[in-house]
Hints:
With 328 residues, the chain is α/β, with parallel strands linked by helices. It contains eleven helices and twelve strands. Helix 2 packs parallel to helix 11 (315-324), helix 4 packs across helix 5 (171-181) and helix 8 (254-263) runs parallel beside helix 10.
Amino acid sequence: MFNQTIRPRRLRTSDNLRKLVRETRISPESLIWPIFVAEGENIYEEIPSLPGQYHYSPDHLYRMVERAHEHGVSRVILFGLPKDKDEIGSGAWAEDGIVQQGIRKIKELDPEMYVVTDVCMCEYTSHGHCGILCGHYVDNDQTIARLAQIAVSHAKAGADMVAPSDMMDGRVAAIRAALDENGFVNVPIMSYAAKYASYFYGPFRDAAGSAPSFGDRRSYQMDWHNGREAMRECALDVQEGADILMIKPAMSYLDLVYQCRQRFDLPVAAYAVSGEYAMIKAAAKAGLIDEYGIMCESAVSIYRAGADILITYYAPELADAIRKGDIG
């Protein structure tokens, strides 16, 4: 009989032992929960394309804070839904803009909650593009000036971190300079370093009312055929002063999460986007998959690829799963 001395299965013989030797360990502190803040009052509405997620007016953000406390989630990223839009997206940097209102309300309800803000213009422009138009083309340099203005307005309202998602060239440097000049040297930038022109964003665009009114975003968001270009984008953001690098979407881009982790010393975030969440929800509703198991497995795959931070609509449920020991 063959003498099998090397037996990897020895370390799989009990749940206690399997948890002891896990290579990938996850903490609730690494989760960020996306939140949609809608301008107005008495708004607490489930988002049809994102079951279990809601539009909150500022007066109903207490519901989100209570749910976050219940599940042990302490970090959120805010997206705003303004009532009015214009060609230049001026509501994005208004002192009383909806994200600014949301920041102040959350900090009033829970000063310790860590608030990240999405810095972009697509939710605020009447045309739905992520910047200032010159004809049908988004003007890069005019846009980054406005993005810097938005980031400063968020910091003044109390944001702990800003996250530019526009994919304009040079925006990290412009935002860093503006934050520093206005006394916010300790407000970090989590850059959407490699954000792809992905089909996985559909439910988000419905939830945020941010679909472009013409054309698409391929002239500024990345071509999903390209991987080396993503590393170039990450390197540029490092040079410009980014504190955290993000890959978006997550699951179909795990190779890039891995490459980013291998090449750069900054923390790496991955955004499990709306389409990923909605597909799991839809398949589970149809009885085709185990939602809880798929949620856990997909999250672990993102961390295993090298992510330090996961932005996910499943943040409350994943925090529970971690505490239960199912994926922690």
